[in-house]
C-alpha cells in the first residue's frame, strides 16, 4: 500500500462518537444521489461503522451510476446499489422503503444555461421524495448559497439569518428547502436541512483549488478573499449522525469548519510547502459566502481534522501526484452562476 493509500485509509476511519451514534440510529439507511462527490465516502464510512459495531443494518446507495466502476466498487465494499433515475416516477416508486434517508441528489455545476433541469432536480424532485418517504427520517442536503453574501467581519451567517440566494442555483436550493419544510409539516416527517459550506477531501475542494494554482504558478483571484471549509470525512459523519436530530417542523443546520479562512493566507501556506511564491490578482471585497456553524459544533463537537492538517494533507497529496477530480469549486463566484 502506498503512502497516499495509507493516509487516505487512516483518515476515513469512523470516530468513537460516530460509532456510538450509528448504533442509536434505528433501521436501514438509504443514500439518494450516492454517485456524487460525497456519496461514495459517506456510504463507505457508514458500512465501516456497521461492520465495527456488528450492527444488522443495511446501507443502500441510489444513483444513475453512469460510472459503472463506482457501482462495482461500492458493491465490493458491501453496499447495496440501485441504478435509478430519480426523476422517473416509476423508478422512484420502485425504490425500497427505509427508516432513514439521506438526500444528496441535486444539480449545481452546469446549472447556468440548464435552468429547467436544475429546478427539476433541486425543487421538484424533493417533493416526490418527501411524499414517498413521509415516514422516514430525512437529512436533506442544502448549501450556504441560500444565504446572501456576508460581511467579512460578521463571523458568518447563522441559521436564523433570512435566506436571500443570489442566482438561480441558490434560488432552486432554497426551493428544495421550502419543499422539504412543507412536507415535514404536512406529514409530520422528521427532517434536517443540512446547509453545507465547502467540504474538501484529497480529490477536490477549495484548498485543492488554491494549492493547484500555487503549484502550477497560476494567479489566484482575491475578490472573494475568505471562505469556510470542513474535511469531507467530518461532514459525512455529521450528515449520518444528523439522522438522530431530524425534527418536524424541519430543523436547519449550518455545517462547516469553525474558521473564517483567508484565501491569501492559505496560498502563502501552500507556497511555503512547495517553495513557490504565490501570485495574486485583484482586491478582496468586504463580503463573501460565509456560514456560522456554531450550532453544529455545539451538537457534534468541533471537526476532527483541523485546518492545518487539511493544508498538510493537500500539499502532500499534490506533491505525491495523488488523483484529483479536476472539478473546480468556483468558490470565487459572486453572482451565483454555476
Count every beta strand, where a strand is a DSSP E run of 2 or more residues: 15
CATH topology: Rossmann fold
Task: Give the CATH architecture.
Answer: 3-Layer(aba) Sandwich
Order of helices and strands: HHEHEHEHEHEEHEEHEEEHEEHEEHH
Amount of beta strand: 15-25%
State the end-to-end CA separation.
Answer: 38 Å
Structural class: alpha/beta
- The top-level CATH class is Alpha Beta
> What does the largest sheet look like?
7 strands, parallel
Count of runs of 4 or more consecutive helical residues: 12
Give an overview in words.
- The longest helix has 21 residues, at 167-187.
- The chain is an alpha/beta fold and 338 residues long.
- Helix 3 crosses helix 9 (232-241), helix 6 packs parallel to helix 7 and helix 10 crosses helix 12.
- 44% of the residues are buried.
- The protein has twelve helices and 15 strands.
- The strands form five sheets. Strands 3-2-1-4-5-7-12 form a seven-stranded parallel β-sheet, with helices on both faces. The protein has a two-stranded antiparallel sheet with strand order 6-15.
- It has one domain: Rossmann fold (3-Layer(aba) Sandwich), CATH 3.40.50.720.
- The chain starts with a helix and ends in a 19-residue tail after the last helix.
Can I get a quick summary?
The protein has 338 residues and is of the alpha/beta class. The protein is built from twelve helices and 15 strands.
Which key features would you list for this structure?
41% helix; seven-stranded parallel β-sheet; 338 residues; Rossmann fold; two-stranded antiparallel sheet; alpha/beta
Amino acid at each position: 500500500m502506498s503512502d497516499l493509500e495509507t493516509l487516505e485509509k487512516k483518515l476515513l476511519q469512523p470516530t468513537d462518537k460516530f460509532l456510538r451514534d450509528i448504533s442509536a440510529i434505528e433501521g436501514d439507511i438509504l443514500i439518494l444521489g450516492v454517485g456524487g462527490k460525497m456519496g461514495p465516502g459517506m456510504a463507505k464510512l457508514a458500512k465501516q461503522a456497521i461492520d465495527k459495531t456488528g450492527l444488522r443494518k443495511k446501507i443502500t446507495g441510489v444513483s444513475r451510476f453512469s460510472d459503472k466502476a463506482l457501482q462495482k466498487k461500492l458493491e465490493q465494499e458491501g453496499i447495496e446499489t440501485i441504478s435509478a433515475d430519480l426523476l422517473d416516477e416509476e423508478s422512484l416508486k420502485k425504490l425500497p422503503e427505509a427508516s432513514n434517508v439521506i438526500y444528496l441528489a441535486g444539480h449545481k455545476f452546469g446549472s447556468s444555461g440548464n435552468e429547467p433541469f436544475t429546478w427539476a432536480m433541486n425543487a421538484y424532485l424533493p417533493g416526490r421524495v418527501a411524499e414517498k418517504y413521509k415516514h422516514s427520517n430525512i437529512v436533506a442536503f442544502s448549501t450556504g448559497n441560500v444565504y446572501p453574501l456576508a460581511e467579512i467581519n460578521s463571523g458568518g451567517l447563522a441559521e436564523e439569518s433570512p435566506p436571500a440566494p443570489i442566482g438561480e442555483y441558490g434560488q432552486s436550493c432554497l426551493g428544495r428547502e421550502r419543499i422539504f419544510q412543507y412536507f415535514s409539516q404536512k406529514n409530520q416527517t422528521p427532517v434536517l436541512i443540512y446547509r453545507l459550506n465547502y467540504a474538501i477531501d484529497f480529490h477536490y475542494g477549495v484548498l485543492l483549488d488554491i494549492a493547484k494554482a500555487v503549484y502550477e504558478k497560476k494567479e489566484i483571484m482575491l475578490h472573494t478573499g475568505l471562505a469556510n471549509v470542513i474535511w469531507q470525512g467530518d461532514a459525512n459523519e455529521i450528515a449520518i449522525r444528523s439522522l438522530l436530530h431530524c425534527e418536524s417542523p424541519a430543523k436547519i443546520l449550518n455545517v462547516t469548519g469553525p474558521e473564517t479562512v483567508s484565501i491569501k493566507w492559505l496560498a502563502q501556506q501552500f507556497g511555503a510547502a512547495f517553495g513557490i511564491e504565490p501570485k495574486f490578482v485583484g482586491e478582496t471585497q468586504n463580503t463573501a459566502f460565509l456560514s456560522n456553524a456554531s450550532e453544529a459544533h455545539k451538537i457534534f463537537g468541533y471537526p476532527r481534522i483541523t485546518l492545518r492538517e487539511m493544508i498538510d494533507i493537500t500539499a502532500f497529496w499534490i506533491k505525491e501526484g495523488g488523483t484529483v477530480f479536476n472539478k473546480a469549486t468556483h468558490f470565487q463566484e459572486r453572482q451565483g452562476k454555476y
